[in-house]
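Annotated sample (chain length 328).
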Amino acid sequence: MDNSNERRRQWIKAHPELVVKPSMKRRKVGHDYCSVAIYMVTLCIAGRRPVLGTLHGPDANHKKPWVYPSSIGAAVKRAWHEIPQYHPQVRLLGFQIMPDHVHGIIHVKAPMPRHLGFLIQDFKKGCRDAVKSIEPNGEILWEEGYNDRILQYGGQLDRWIKYLIDNPYRLWIKRQHPDMFLQQTDIVIGSTHVVVMGNRLLLEYPEKVAVRCSRRLSEEEIDHECQRYLSMAKEGAVLVSPCISPGEKEVMGTAFEAGYSLIVLIENGFSPYQKPSGRQFDACSQGRLLIVAPWPHHDDYRKITKKQCEDLNTLARLISDGSWYTNK
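Output written by the structure step:
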């Protein structure tokens, strides 16, 4: 990543609408939340207290990790499935309960008289009533608001349904393998063995975009590409690039400064005990950076070859389309 950050900071200052904000509860500007659409919504328990259930690893009855709902979690699940009784314009396409939050996919099949936020309010009220019915002194406190993502039919919807199903697995991996943010060597992209450092779960994220910029772009054109790619990142895409051309470096560096999730490919590999340092360490610990190295580490300076550039761009494309994934 280019260490010259001042220009990027100035660019970000000029485009505050593309900077990641602390809250994930942003609505899409200009979208009619009463209209026909598919939404993935996320609601979290206040303080992220694990009151909805407990995570269990694979056992005789479950091939994959799973969450066993508490009595409160069971009441929440019941309230979720009752949503269409009160909002006949919707159908439910997916649901996943986690210890401290829930994900659900809602298909609004006909225009609603009130926007999505009212449906979520009704669901939260239904949760409170359901909990009271089984535990008179019980209560459930949600964080204020909710996060939504607007999904498309077909591949994107299918990927997010799978993402929900696999959520307990990802949490189990994080808990069972705290070293996952260190060097990992068991990944093959296409036919290339790679070493990765950082949050490898970014490889499985449903939406990834390969960043490609010609070396011949002017500064004005690079600014345009920054805005285009950061707009995609704002919509939830993970940006993938070897950061070779000036434009690619500028896009990825600006996205890093703005707080987005990145997969960066590097020519020089990792030394045996190397760990992320500085701001890359912070980004890895936040789960928003993965560094991918297809070749061994070397101490001497080597100019990257045209063939290596082509290979790195091919790997970036394979990672972004998501069809390559093999775990040895």
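Annotation: The CA atoms of residues 277 and 284 lie 9 Å apart.
Annotation: The radius of gyration is 22 Å.
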